[in-house]
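To whoever is on call:

I kicked off a structure prediction for a single chain this morning and the downstream step that reads the tokens threw a length-mismatch warning. I double-checked the sequence; it's 278 residues and nothing unusual in it as far as I can see. Pasting both halves so you can look.
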Amino acid sequence: MAGLFQNILIPVDLTINTDVAVKKAMELAENNSMVHLLYVQNFAFPGIAGIAKKHCVRTNELPGNTFIEKSLNLWKNKIEESTNNITVHTWNILADSIQRTIEIKAKQLAVDLIIIGKKSHHSWLPFLNTVVPSQVARKTGITVITVKPGSINNKMKTVVLPISSESVKHKMEVIADISRKYRIKVYLVIIMDRGTESENLYSSTLLQLYQWLNTIGCPVEYAVLSGHNKAKAILNYAERINADILLLEPETETRIGWPNKHISDVLPFESKLQVWAV
């Protein structure tokens, strides 16, 4: 049965971000999976890419392109030689916007999963981020995993799954796929919203998920949290229980600050916590 890990897109920058994203893809990939390595050559000013194309500047004529192509091929060979079951395609694209290019290519390739390595961030000036994972997930409808270098050798054992009305069905599909590869324990979380009875509102969903997780053999616990910022409350809880994965709805559960600060922006370089925007 085809699952979440058959067709994977990895935006690469040829730094340690690429190392950690590729390592996670190889851990997750199923037999006969396809991995796409996407490098976006980004111009600093909007419109210059269009001018370059208008004047017939080809990608292979751009400065540094030989190094980029060679690096992409080295990664392709490394992945394919390490296993007989993964086919790798490389893409080197000239574009104004890195994020928009990722979104377009992900849809064109009909990928199941996008994995983004992220060693650094602009936590104080989040509008400087060239890629916001939650926005990519929301605009494409594709699960986006954000990983820090600290997770490179960490196995997936514990998952925090907040209960909300937005994406419970999709989260269940993702958990089913993860549980086929790893022995995981799931922590179900209800967030008490100010002025509402969230615990009562989501109690039936909590019961349904609890019973379903037991049927597929996942140990499960649940907790009720409170806080004005949902993402911050979830992150604090995940750090308290030493979780490996946060399984989050892209907007309301990942946005930890204004205007678009993603949870991964506040995680340190050495964090093992993976953020899955579903």
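Update from on-call: the warning came from a stale cache, not from the record. Cleared it. Sanity check on the structure: The domain at 151-277 is CATH 3.40.50.620 (Rossmann fold).
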